[in-house]
């Protein structure tokens, strides 16, 4: 038996959160345990609109009576889906199944839940423990939580550079900066992302596919920021499923979908309206793989939630070689926090978030009325 059973089982539930892409719904994981033994587990099944708790309870059947449910997010409590169709909430499933204890990692800020799920369980006499592995759960549900708080997607800026900070050489054909282990991590990130964002400069220079090839997983939606519609119709990204965000009027003859959006003061696609549009499409986990100009626009708009920079032990040099943030520079320095460092083969990866980002505020329920875990 693990030294802290709640942590042990919650970690198992957290490992279930990456089974499917479920946005705009959260990808929840749930396990049911009785007398220290795993009874069943479940995860959000998007195509059938099945929640993790409901799946785990259905699999457990009568064995759920008197058991503990571990869930990575507060169970839902509303009887209607976003499209207006009826549904049975997970709180009702828990009560009817005879669950006697619920351990939840974190609160759901969705106004339809926002503590009401916990209140319903507590009113039914179910013991609650809240906050077990909360930091890990907030990270697992980062895109859903960001969208609930701001209406915007969660953006990770990924860049691969040399030790002297160059993305590529200014005078040679495209070259692989990082090693195979680092590239595999990037493909894993693509498999987790709803969309991958690039600028038209990347399309013209590299003609990328932006697919998942080095790991198993589904391809993200490619999104091209192309204010003047310079993407060639022969580009590999001009295919069904690709979104081209432009400031130009609609034109026929494209396989990709053209979306006309407002321009910023420089005549480029404005970042925040673009993010609002992508959120409306249900694309909440975004991987920014662009060149320095578009990346700088995202940072300037305070639209980046975390940076993931891979640094390879190589030197390129060159005054005109591209860097992760090109252009005139940011209006003010951006301080980063929560720095984490990992090695992938010969390369070093740095992960950090802007210090201006804060944790979600608690929902409208008195936390003191609920028992919290440690």
Automatic annotation (TrEMBL):
CDD domains, per database record: Riboflavin_deaminase-reductase (cd01284)
Parts forming coiled coils: none
Keywords: Hydrolase, Metal-binding, Multifunctional enzyme, NADP, Oxidoreductase, Riboflavin biosynthesis, Zinc
Cofactor note: Binds 1 zinc ion.
One Pfam short name: RibD_C
Function: Converts 2,5-diamino-6-(ribosylamino)-4(3h)-pyrimidinone 5'-phosphate into 5-amino-6-(ribosylamino)-2,4(1h,3h)-pyrimidinedione 5'-phosphate.
Chain positions recorded as substrate binding sites: 190, 206, 210, 213, 289
The protein's name: Riboflavin biosynthesis protein RibD
Gene3D superfamilies: Cytidine Deaminase, domain 2, Dihydrofolate Reductase, subunit A
Active-site residues from the entry: 53 (proton donor)
Provenance organism: Armatimonas rosea
Cited SUPFAM superfamilies: Cytidine deaminase-like, Dihydrofolate reductase-like
